[in-house]
């Protein structure tokens, strides 16, 4: 809480001329001991610390379990504060998006997992985003898809197909989005070759 007091004061618009477009996210991907109940108990104090110096700043708040879309309905935002945007991350199915990821101990056997956009795969995506949209409508909150992407070991054609499907589904439901990430393990840009990974870039921009 004290850390957020310092950050908020440092970027207070009146003092630092920070634009209204600057937003705060209280905590990226709460996890571990911060389960649904503990995160629900914790974030109001962080929000209060920010609001002391930034009463109108837009703040992003996502659910526990790494901002899981399935946990949005466990998050209760203060109804009187209308300068909050809900956020979630999307990496389903994990066996596809994280196959071979070195930070996941059990991901090696997932290598070779495909995502070809068959009806069953697209229906799972649709249902997940429909559930998120229902939360958004019930709570009268905009939603921001803060992360989505597929790890470099997945088949590139499948990565592009999945990326396009997720981005377009988000847009269909009115969610803003950001891709994870620029030029590392999921990146749309190849820093060694100094050029875009064109299939991913085209998928994001909805180009052929």
Note down, in words, how this protein is organized.
The chain is α/β, with parallel strands linked by helices and 208 residues long. The chain has one domain: TIM Barrel, CATH 3.20.20. The chain contains eight helices and seven strands, in the order ααβαβαβααβαβββα. The chain has a five-stranded parallel sheet with strand order 1-2-3-4-5, covered by helices on one side. Strands 6-7 form a two-stranded antiparallel ribbon. The radius of gyration is 18 Å and the shape is globular. The model has no long low-confidence stretch (mean pLDDT 95).
Give the terminus-to-terminus CA distance.
47 Å
What would you give as the CATH superfamily? Glycosidases
Fraction in helix: 25-40%
CATH architecture assignment name = Alpha-Beta Barrel
- Overall pLDDT score: 95
What is the tally of helical segments?
8
| Structure class | alpha/beta
Supply the CATH class. Answer: Alpha Beta
Q: What portion of residues belong to β-strands?
A: 5-15%
Large-scale geometry: globular
Question: Cα-atom Rg, whole angstroms?
Answer: 18 Å
